[in-house]
Structures are given as structure tokens and as C-alpha cells.
Predict the structure of Putative 4-hydroxy-4-methyl-2-oxoglutarate aldolase.
Amino acid sequence: MEQWIQRLQELPSTCVSDALQGKSQMDPGICPIKDEYKVAGRAFTVSIPPGENTSVLRAIREAQPGDILVVDGKGFLSRAVAGDFIVGLAQTLELGGLVIDGVIRDIGGTRELGFPVFCRGTTVAASGKTGIGELQVPICCGGTPVQPGDYIVGDRDGIVVIPGERIEEVLSKAEERMWKDEERSARILGHPEAARAYLDSVL
Ligand SMILES: O=C([O-])CC(=O)C(=O)O
Ligand SMILES: [Mg+2]
């Protein structure tokens, strides 16, 4: 695994967001189907027309292990981009996760798989299989541009997109932020005098 991805996996999405000055996050309507899910890795992008998911299968076949499939389903809420079978295929081929601007189905079975999926919710109806769609093109997912090869970090707080060429700089800033936050909390929280001194220093 790329050392960048290992470092990304250790980071809360909030620190990555701070490193990007609060920009580049997806719409908060795209949520993990289990609270504890986390995704961190390179984006493999998929663009599909509303209600059509053949290209998701093509993407699962083409993507590398660890890749995060980022699917622009145009926010369509009536047809499922995937269900427990398609998510199971992504898991079997060791992809890193699925981020969908759209909905899934078979939610019970999909949760049981233990594979990280982020989406806008569920529906009962399947998508069509006409074969239309594009892989590894620039897309917009949850209102945010995503290029093939950008990096994605997502958890219960939200999903952040890191432009591929900024990964090194953003990682360093986000790590520094995380260490500073941890040090500050350990020093101040639970210590009333330190808490008062902190408030006096910032107000
Ligand atoms: O077949 C589909 O399009 C969605 C589905 O139910 C599955 O993946 O299990
Ligand atoms: Mg199904």
C-alpha cells in the first residue's frame, strides 16, 4: 500500500478538512451506512446517468485493490446504484470502499458485509442495465469536483476530496492539526484552571 494511504487512514476527516481550509467536502447527505465506517484512498471515478448502473460493474472490474469507487449517480433517489451483490463484488476484489451520490438497496445484507459504503440512503428499485456511463473521467460527487487519482477521506463526519497533486502538503498539515488537537485536549479538558486560562487567552 502506498505510504500516503496508510497515513490518510490514520487521519480524521475533520483534520483533513482543516488542512484544506474547510473546502472540498461532499454534501453531508452522503453518509456511511454504518457509523464506524471509514474510507481513505485513491478515487476511481464513475459517471452514470440517473437510474443506470452497468458502469459500476465495469469500474469494479477495472479498479485496483484499495481504490475508492466514487460514483456520480446525479443524486438520483429512486433507483439503487448497488445492492448487497454489487457491493459484495467490490469487497471480493478488495476495493477500499464505495462513495455514491445516489442510493443503494438490500441495506440489511449490505451492512452485514462489513464493507464501507457511503450514500444518500436506500430505495427498493434496481437500476437499468443499458451499459451507459464513463470511467475515470472528471466528475462531481455531492457537489464537489473529483478527478481520477484524487484522494478521498470519509468517516461519520463527512467526506473530503484531496486534489492528487496536493496530497503531500495536505497530509502534513492534517497530521500537524491532529497532533495539536490531541495535545490541547489532553492539556486542557478535565483541568478547570487550564480551561479558564485557555478561554482567557482566546477571548
Ligand atoms: O443488481 C443490482 O443492480 C442491485 C442489487 O440488487 C445488488 O447488487 O444486489
Ligand atoms: Mg440485490
Q: What stands out?
A: The mean pLDDT is 97. Strands lie at 31-32, 39-47, 68-82, 97-104, 117-119, 134-135, 139-141, 144-146, 151-155, 158-162.
